[in-house]
Amino acid sequence: MERLPFFVYGTLRPGQGNHRLFEGRISAEYDGARAPGFVLYANGLPYVRASGDVADEVIGTLVIPEPETYPQLLRRLDALEGVRPNGAGLYNRKVCLAHYLTQPEGDWQETRAWIYEGGSTYFTYAEHLRVPSGDWLRTRAA
To answer: Which end of the chain is more exposed for a tag (fewer CB within 10 A), N or C?
Structure first.
């Protein structure tokens, strides 16, 4: 399995309750990253779904784990997100393209990353649940 960074957009972002799972396990993180082609929804918990339209984007944090902690971290994150091998979990881990800045005035970089997409069995993708800004933290703070 590829050891990709993680694109996180909700409770795993810095300052949120589940970010503690990353403590001591990351080499870098870039807040303000973007995942084009995804739409953010919130109904208590935030969740995303691929839209296929690059004009849609979700705002989050790109987290790059320490190589030696990667296998354990992946297991912990998959368990937290309820990932199941058959794809019928609370969330499904998928590959996305993530854009991020390594410096505030730098150039945008692009990388493949894991993103946890909401499972269709558990979440509703209704328009009234869509987060127009694509940024759950900003919406939550408002």
So the answer is: C
